[in-house]
Amino acid sequence: MNITKHILDLKPRPKLRLAEIERLIRKHRILIPPPSRRSLVALCESGRLETTPRRNGQTWLVYEDSFLRWVEELDK
């Protein structure tokens, strides 16, 4: 029972693919014109957008809370 409870207490952080981030930026008009894929990758590589560890050829996965913090910083 305790093991099951510990497993259910796990709350993984939601992750977004770069394609979804691009879609959100366009849909909500966060930046006009929207940044290129290279610009978003540069934000990931610089650490501005917190990402999951990548393996060979794996797509970029950005933590949702990190993306939301970045959007909030744009308004400051």
At a glance:
The protein is mostly helical and 76 residues long. It is built from 4 helices and 2 strands; from the N terminus they run αβααβα.
Describe the fold and architecture.
- It is a single chain.
- With 76 residues, the protein is mostly helical.
- It has one domain.
- Helices cover 50% and strands 8% of the residues.
- It contains four helices and two strands.
- Strands 1-2 form a two-stranded antiparallel ribbon.
- The radius of gyration is 15 Å and the shape is globular.
- The mean pLDDT is 90.
Topology (elements, then pairings):
Elements: H1 2-8, E1 15-17, H2 18-27, H3 37-46, E2 61-63, H4 64-74
Key features of this structure:
mainly alpha; two-stranded antiparallel sheet; 76 residues; 50% helix
